[in-house]
Predict the 3D structure of the following.
Amino acid sequence: MKRKSLIPILLIILLTLGNLSSVFINLFKTYHYQTENAEFEFSTMPTKGRDVEMMEREFSDLKKTHPEYENLQLFRTFKRNHIQFWNWYKYLMKDMYEDEYRK
């Protein structure tokens, strides 16, 4: 009886510790974004200060300076891997996953 009640608690602890440690696991990753025909491309590197906010500023500056690009949509080129449970928090809470995925 006690063993069955420990399993959910251990799973919750594992998920919590995994998501807390994802900061260190994903420390040096880069994430690539681009428009459909590659008029605009940007790679974020959060550890170097190139974050999603910087990308959005540059993308809006491009749209302002080039009116023909006003209707461009930005896509992320990296997938979510739901097997990597340590990234679940990031998938739900981070801005980097708001954009639609395209190959």
